[in-house]
Amino acid sequence: MTLHQFEQLPSFEGIASEKWELHRGKDILPMWVADMDFPAPPAVLAALEERIRHGVLGYTNITPSYKEAVTGWMNRRYGWQADPSWVRFCPGVVTSLSVIVRACTSPGDRIVIQPPVYPPFHSVVKDNGRELVLNPLLRREDGSYEVNFIELEQQLADEQVRMLILCHPHNPVGRVWSRQELERIAELCIRYDVLVASDEIHGDLAHRQDAFIPFASLSDEIADRVLVCTSPSKTFNIAGMNTSNMIIPNEQLRSAVTAELRRSSVSSISALGHAAVIAAYNHGEEWLEDVLAHIRGNMKLIMDELALHAPEINVVHPEGTYLLWLDCRGLGLNDRELQLFFLERARLQLSAGSAFGEGGAGFMRLNAACSRKTAEEAARRIAAAVQELRAEES
What we know:
PyrdxlP-dep_Trfase, Aspartate Aminotransferase, domain 2, 2 domains, alpha/beta, globular, Aspartate Aminotransferase, domain 1
């Protein structure tokens, strides 16, 4: 495979793409929704074609080969020897989190999240009748982020706090939590008897493979209270297959989640989703390495161009994900003005930082999983818009 494959993009016309339909027909680059612009890996497409040629697309069981594909990937990539019996299917990670909240906590319990963070983290807590506890990340002088451990310990010590929802790697700030940080979180959760729902959907997108550590792999003691949420959707750009998995080592927690899945009528995977997941995990690794190299090139290009031509925008250096977190506070715009600046002046659809909660105002999130041409054009448009704004203010 070559990186050239990521330059020949398909047409998005007529496929009901959430990302591309919003401003279809307008000269606005969509760089908001967290999926890639690239076709899925050839091995996945071949598996889907074979399944369709077979012709039978009826109800489909989760087979041993499916679970073994999930855990085999974890073992090969990260050395985590998860047992296939720990795997539970769910259509998406947000649905998984909602199921976990209902299964493992009670109405009125408190749940900690770490903003600025993926917006559904807020809603899966509040919509299920639990109380939200915010542990905002701390921003270092170099623009990177860290956990506020002093506040986190105070919060976890509260007997009403029953769960931490961890974003690992963190969306949108791009941190891949280190072993030292994970061990400190684990120690606090064990000490104060707090469960952890660990959203690891971006784990395969760490920019150094050895940097990402599945939280439950740290020790048997922490694995006993961790429910891992993962999916091939970000990794292999198959979000439309609606497939994700929970990996739950603790039998009691696994039984509680299984019962809640049944109550929620979540039981069956699609025939195509089943084929796609097995093919992706068993045969998609080379494609993943290629796409990560391409995305790193896009990110470097955008960061370099903005540093040179639009220094008012500080790009947080990402350790993982294909998302860039842009600190735009140097532009001196309020939240509404900032969104209009990117949409109307730069002609880019990005994700507003304010949607990610506390600490997000003044930031924007940019999806760099695109062709090099699109990345170059996005950087050019941002730089031109900033220079235009600068000229107006001088």
